[in-house]
Amino acid sequence: MGGRARYLDTAAQAWLVAYGGQQADVTLAELNQAWQAQGGRPIGQTCLWRVLDEHDLRRKKKLSRQRA
Prior knowledge:
Elements: H1 10-22, H2 28-37, H3 45-54
């Protein structure tokens, strides 16, 4: 049905998903920088998160040690 058009086309989404899958510990800010470095336009963190979330790629950092 109706709704807003996607900000990113499918090629851009595919690039982000591939990069996010290869660099499992990348932050949203780092992902945005890499995207812009390869010629993409700036993207908001919410937009990036939604694209990754749709493909079950989470950006939550895991603690490598337990708290005291």
